[in-house]
Design goal:
The complex is a heterodimer of chains A (90) and B (421). Chain A has 90 residues and is α+β, with helices and mostly antiparallel strands. Helices cover 18% and strands 23% of the residues of chain A. Chain A contains two helices and five strands; from the N terminus they run E-E-H-H-E-E-E. The chains are: A alpha+beta (90), B alpha/beta (421). At the A-B interface, strand 3 and strand 5 of A face helix 7 and helix 8 of B. The complex binds pyridoxal-5'-phosphate and zinc ion.
Chain lengths: 90, 421
């Protein structure tokens, strides 16, 4: 089981839950699992060809998955995924 | 006061175009694209003219129809309208006809261009009913949030990487804000703030107030065009962190041209970053649309040390679309840039300004900026806040007794030139 932190704009799909659990061995599998429990969530996170939306950051524990293998990044039980929209600043 | 509300109607997703109300919203629920303020340009065009703008107070609010605040300006009414300085000695040094400095190192109240964005964000936050203002910051944004919240009588929290320069910390803390140092990079600060913003009902200027905040940067472009005598320059060099300012300078020129306030023209907009944290410049050079974040930025240019810039995609579009380029400066070039600007023009810029000067030198050397073209450098912050970058270079080296004889022997040994006498 992996915990997934859901950003505010997606919580309407997760019945207001901030953290949900999902199963899978890669980020892609987790997204598919989320989709089966919270229909509609995948098309919010991914573009038509299955890539993550450009303005979304996904972290495995503390690390941006772009520094790992992107959506193919492998996961272990107890990991936490966070989905966070890109943020301005400076 | 004009009924400002009519000039902007709400927000719109920059990617998919879905409309949203003018609330504290910042991403599209459907595609996570950033939301942008929607204006009624026909109405603004009927209302705004050069004469009307020129008759107003010298602050960024002279362009208020093009800034997203509905009512009266209750905080930051004096922000902006900083000097646009003709840099004749720098131009002579470089062998160029026309160089200008847009000098936000003396912006009010906190000596950086961030006063512009915060002024819009805090006014809008008040209108939306927020009681607490907050931000994630590489320093300057925090300074301005702290000062302008104080002057608005609002409580504030600012989140910064714990290892910022002393001046950046002091210039937040002095205003009575709560400064929280995070043991991590700016991008980690940002991520934490996204989580805090989801849980606390605060107005985060760079998160849930981002569409309003970002528009404030346009005022730098408006002022450049007005102060040049209502024209758009050939080239502008803009420092990039999150990549928002550069897109808004471009947008400002477009809006002025669209409203007939300046003749149509495409300025080449060049983006500058520090070599060891240059995700946008790297993507530009690779000719790629995919921006690879930098995990551990390692540069003296802490104000620009954002490894995962939110507006990178649009910054790249601005650069490529205008025919500009992306330029990176090493720490040594940055220091040389700060010193050159101070020596030739009497302007003491922070590290981001050193990056801009260094970038301009490269653009001239590569022939991208020609000697007979006009070049504007955006100097966005003040050198007194980043003293550490110059550590050991400008300490007091000469001391003498209060004696004329000692002075005369000093001048003989150190500067035996006629001019001194
Ligand atoms: C002095 C200075 N210049 C430029 C920038 C870049 O702004 P942006 O994040 O809009 O690219 C910053 C951002 O912090 C800054 O502090
Ligand atoms: Zn959208």
């Amino acid at each position: 089981m992996i915990n997934v932190r859901i950003p505010t704009p997606l919580r309407t799909l997760t019945r207001d839950q901030e953290v949900v659990s999902a199963t899978g061995t890669t980020v892609s599998e987790i997204i598919d699992d989320l989709q089966s429990n919270y229909p509609g969530i995948k098309e919010r996170i991914c573009t038509g060809n299955g890539e993550l939306h450009r303005f979304l950051n996904v972290y495995l524990n503390d690390e941006d998955i772009r520094f790992r293998d992107g959506t193919a990044t492998a996961l272990n039980a107890g990991d936490e995924l966070s989905i966070i929209p890109a943020i301005a600043g400076g | 006061m004009v009924e400002q509300r009519r000039f902007f109607s709400g927000l719109k997703c920059r990617e998919c175009g879905r409309p949203y109300p003018g609330k504290a919203l910042y991403v599209c629920e459907y595609c996570f694209g950033p939301l942008e303020v929607e204006y009624d340009y026909a109405l603004i065009g009927d209302s705004l003219s050069r004469e009307k703008i020129e008759a107003r107070r010298k602050s960024m609010w002279r362009y208020r129809e093009l800034l997203p605040v509905a009512g009266d300006i209750s905080v930051g009414a004096d922000v902006g309208f900083t000097p646009l300085v003709r840099a004749k000695r720098l131009a002579a040094e470089w062998g160029v006809r026309e160089v200008w400095l847009k000098n936000d190192s003396v912006n009010f109240p906190t000596l950086s261009f961030k006063d512009r964005v915060v002024s819009v964000a805090v006014n809008r936050a008040r209108e939306l009913g927020f009681k607490v203002i907050s931000c994630a910051s590489t320093g300057n944004l925090a300074n301005s949030v702290a000062a302008q919240s104080a002057s608005a009588g609002m409580q504030s929290f600012v989140f910064i990487p714990h290892d910022l320069e002393d001046g950046k910390i002091l210039c937040s803390s002095i205003y009575g804000t709560k400064v929280v140092g995070i043991r991590g990079t700016y991008d980690q600060v940002n991520r934490l703030c996204a989580e805090i913003a989801g849980r606390y009902g605060w107005g985060f200027v760079n998160i849930n107030l981002r569409p309003y905040y970002a528009e404030g940067s346009k005022s730098m472009g408006f002022e450049i065009a007005e102060q040049l005598g209502w024209r758009i320059p050939d080239h502008v060099v803009v420092p990039m962190a999150g990549g928002s300012l550069i897109t808004k300078v471009d947008k400002a020129f477009d809006e002025f041209a669209k409203l007939g306030l300046v003749p149509h023209k495409t300025a080449k907009i060049h983006g500058a970053q520090a070599q060891n944290c240059a995700p946008i410049v790297n993507a530009f050079r690779a000719g790629s649309d995919v921006v690879r974040p930098i995990a551990e930025p390692n540069t003296i240019v802490k104000s620009l040390a954002i490894g995962n810039p939110a507006d990178a995609h649009y910054a790249l579009q601005t650069i490529s679309g205008s025919g500009g380029s992306g330029v990176a400066a090493s720490d040594a070039e940055t220091i040389a840039g700060i010193e050159l600007l101070a020596r030739t023009e009497g302007v003491f810029a922070e590290t981001a300004g050193g990056v801009v000067v260094a970038a301009a030198i490269k653009l001239l050397a590569s022939g991208q900026v020609k000697p007979d073209e006009s070049l504007v450098l955006c100097i966005t912050g003040n050198g007194l806040k980043t003293k550490e970058a110059l550590h050991g270079r400008h300490e007091l080296k000469t001391t003498i007794k209060p004696s004329l004889a000692e002075f005369e022997s000093l001048i003989e040994t150190e500067s035996p030139t006629k001019e001194w006498k």
